[in-house]
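Protocol step 4 of 5: obtain the predicted structure for the target chain.
Materials: sequence only (see below). No template structures provided, no constraints applied. The aim of this step is simply to have a reference model before the mutagenesis design in step 5. Sequence pasted as it appears in the construct record:
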Amino acid sequence: MALRNCECATETRGHRKAFLLSLSRLFWASVSLWLMGALVATEGAAQTVHFRDITAQAGIHFTHNSGAFGKKWLPETMGPGCAFIDYDNDGYADVLLVNGSDFPGHPRNGATTLKLYHNNHDGTFTDVTRKAGLSSSFFGLGIAVGDYDNDGFDDIFVTTLGQNHLFHNNGNGTFTDVTKFAGLGGPNDFSTSAAWVDYDRDGKLDLVVANYVQWSEKGDLFCTIDGTHKSYCTPESYKGVSVRLWHNLGNGKFEDATRKAGLYDPTSKSLGITILDYNSDGWPDLLIANDTQPNKLYLNKKDGTFEERGVAAGIAFSEDGVARAGMGTDAADYDRSGHPSVLITNFANQMLSLYHNEGNGLFVDEAPQSEVGRASLVTLGFGCFFFDYDNDGWPDIFVADGHIEDQIERVQKRVSYAEPPHLFRNLGNGKFAEVTKQMGASFAAAKVARGAAYADIENDGFLDILMSTNSGPAYLFHNEGGTNHSLRVKLIGTKSNRDGIGSVVRVVSNNMQDKQWKMLRSGSSYLSQSELVLTFGLGQQAKADMMEVQWPSGHVDRLGDVNAGQTITIEEGKGIVSSRRYKAPIKARSAITRVANARH
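Step 4 output (structure tokens):
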């Protein structure tokens, strides 16, 4: 009897345990389903965003001249850069496109020049190149935008195969080539990307310029991928060239400070530059993406010199110790760790590099274990950047792809000449998902892309994309369908450089729970320049609880309760000096206009 009672008690306890276990499983299954539903809902919301090709309706008619005439010279493969610049300070991003030229003695396309398109504030642009004094012909490659003389108007530096050019903004809609006056004449390098940076924090923008290899018509080599036909040579066939650092003397002139600053390295074959403060000491460091040579990471020693830390930091080579073919590069705190991580595009069959900043001076490449690496394995990336395309507060990744060899399919069946871009949505927790195909057929179409930049072209709070192609058209993609809030920040330095380049802006929202920060930088991507305005996605939050601007001068401005849905201008030492509410998107304005017309 006692045994039976014991068995009953055991059985009762067993039933209760089974019941509780079933209840627990039901609860966690419900939670799992809820989380899956939330994820699907989030993904669904993200999928409403798409990029519409508005190039033709915007009035941008441009075809790049690579100079190709059948000999397969190395410079033909490089492609053009592109840029956004508000050259007339009307608060709207204008479009600047770099062009190549025919090679001397080999006329094919006639004179081709830079193209400057003025933003008409309605989604259209007007070609003002000749009026602006920019219709110069040279073999252009890259571009960097910055106000080097602190007069309140952004100037233009163009890299070329040969003599680079500095165009001073006269403040009346025109530019003057001041290359010789500025002391930049003389070097005839094969220059690629460039960036303005106040490396000594004296309030004046200096200039760092990447250089590729020693190439000339007479020194052109015969290379082949099939044993018979000539192909483009790899940079391994040519000697390297050092980057150059031009120190701003403050009187409109520059001096070559490359050797004095410890940057001279003739083994480099540089294509990409990004500025970052990787050790968070308040001084800008330099990351140089090299092609078939180790990437370089130059630590700013705060005394006008730099120390190379690429190998020690873990960004010089791939995981297996190989120097990859680095092209474009950018930096951002994509996981809210408080430290800037690094993105570098590489050659086909090498995948992207996504170097996570561990916060202790070391970087770890997360790409091989992520969707970023798997999806980019066979593509050849050039332009790239972090940007928050859906304004959810997490930096996403864009990469412009395109091979250099138009016959590559003959020898590598998995690789193609024209390739779709990559758009990776940041899912949080260091995870990304490719969403390229969801962004529209034209956006996802294969292209031979090179440069890439972003800006909000109509002040609606969402970032649009400009992309250039080699021997092809430029593309302008308008960001549509988003509903999240954002806040845009324009800076005016006083003690610091006028653009505020190098400033760090921190934004806290969602009852002080969500913390973001961005550094305003010139350059990055590949041969290209994005707008000098910072956009912070706030998700469903209607305001920022707190903002802080850390200027290069050391001054800090703090603000509280700043509403979303506007572009604010912050002046060093004064706080917000102006603001402008967002416009309705182009499509919405078109619908309003149609209704108004119908009523009349």
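Step 4 remarks: Confidence is low (pLDDT under 50) at residues 1-47, 588-600. The first strand starts at residue 50 and ends at 53.
Proceed to step 5.
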